[in-house]
Amino acid sequence: MTLKNSPFNFMSKKVWAFCILLLAAGAIVWSEFGSLSQVKPKSQLEVMGDECAGVADNAVANMVAVVEFQKLEIQGRKVRVMRLCMADKGFQENPRWLAYANPMAKQHSVRDGVSLDEALENLKRTDMMNFRETNHPLYWQPRP
Questions:
Q1: Which of 45, 42, 41 is nearest to 139 (CA)?
Q2: Closest CA to 140 of 67, 88, 105
Q3: pLDDT of res. 116
Q4: What is the rounded distance in angstroms from the CA atom of residue 86 to the CA atom of residue 79?
Q5: Sign of the four-CA dihedral 86, 127, 136, 52
Q6: What does the mean pLDDT of the chain come to?
Q7: Which pTM does this prediction carry?
């Protein structure tokens, strides 16, 4: 039997095509993982914020709300623990965020039919958990 008539000749073309395809896929994956290693490291605010968010979650982990007002107590405790932890880590409420949030709180209070203070507290609860740069001022700033 000659090499041209061998059943492995056709098979070797498939094997070579598969190897080339596998190498191309590997090169693509390698280039993607290479770009992932260039991810920007977390800022001090992100690190401390994530740590304090974990502490605040743990502070209310075993609490179960039976009545509606208990849900508000749990939220309040979580926010209080978050504020105390961030203060311990050297952060405070950003006055620029407050100036940004007051007009929004007025809009929310009219829209939702709640007081201005409640609308502002609702904005605080959402924005105090954001630690990454956005198009508006961050809630937290380092203490001077």
A1: 45
A2: 88
A3: 94
A4: 11
A5: positive
A6: 85
A7: 0.67
